[in-house]
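Table 4 source record.
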Amino acid sequence: MQPAGRLDPPPWMTAPETRAVIDALRAGSADARFVGGCVRDTWLKRPVKDIDIATHAPPEAVLRILEDAGIRAIPTGIAHGTVTAVIGREHFEITTLRRDVENFGRHARVEFTDDWKEDAARRDFTMNALSCTPDGTVYDPFGGLKDMAAGRVRFVGDARQRLHEDVLRLLRFFRFHAHYGRGAPDGDALAACRAMADRLPTLSGERLQGEILRLLTAANAAEVWQLMIGQGVMAHLLPAATNVARLSRMVELQHDLGEAPDSLLRLAAALDTDHAGALAAAETLKLSNADRDRLANMVEPKVAVSLHDDRPARRRALYRLGDAGLYRDLVRLQAAEAPGPVSLHHVREVLATAEDLPGLRFPLSGRDALALGAKPGRHVGEALRDVEAWWSGQDFQPRREECLEALKRRLGSVPLPQPSPATRERGQSGGSPLSREAGEG
């Protein structure tokens, strides 16, 4: 296999931890190359997350080589040839060159080999079949560099066969197209994905979740989402996630606000359903309990949030929600729902309302009602709720003493008082002790 190009060794390749692992393997006569994503992303000048190494040495020999060099070695997947080297906080996955003998869906029976091309043939896409020697020499057995230059995600070998081996590659295809593709997707790959989409429900929710949430971080997630709907993929996965227009606006909004992509927020934007439908989507993707609840509350909130409300109304909504994070989620969803352009300045102003009421608590409790002579019963709770609604309607300005007076009147079936001139002044100036304690500014 002839070299296809050369990289100027980037910092991750020349770091002391990386050099220590490579030097140990070489000292043990183990030929080693960097493989997969670290080579692909370095070529594309993108950040590198994981450093994977391949070698012709069998895993038992790799363990011995690392231990002899004083490097911690973990047999993370030794039956399939994988050993993890650990130096400080850095982890390096080292896998022996393999070829598939039999395939059982996701799992395969493998044999170790010393043939780099045989090992590369096991990779899903041509851009993932690259390898690179420690001096920066790049090998490209299946045309991955050309495909990357064209923005084309292409399977190694027959697309349908690769999907038959592991149908998760179907979602990986769309994820990679979202992050690395440009223009029309590869026709053979798309046809294979369309034909195999009905097998997606056989995958675990955790594997589905990983691909979907990573896809949603892409800048062109909405375009690829529409492609998946058009190819019948979403019908077998998330049939309620059809609101591509809102998803597109959410992606644009987060970009314009300078925010990092929020996959769960984008998923909520795509879902065109109710609380039960959100729970069904969460179950399909096996979301954590916290993410499940966040998704359901975004899709069908118990309290409405509007960009058109004045500040006191926004503060009341925030108080009723009792969750600043959810309030911000709902503001963004409202902005993405807007039929026309929205002012980013106004959206930022509304989002800032989430910081208005930290730690704010209604200053009365049932004990106060009993201290005023009320007898225990449902009417006490009703009276407190009415006074709390009056208090929040005054923008949380009345002090405890005024709330006690209002409660006394309510328990006596006397209409609740109107705010005093002083209270009205405090409401206009934002100068009450309560609002200062609540962080109003």
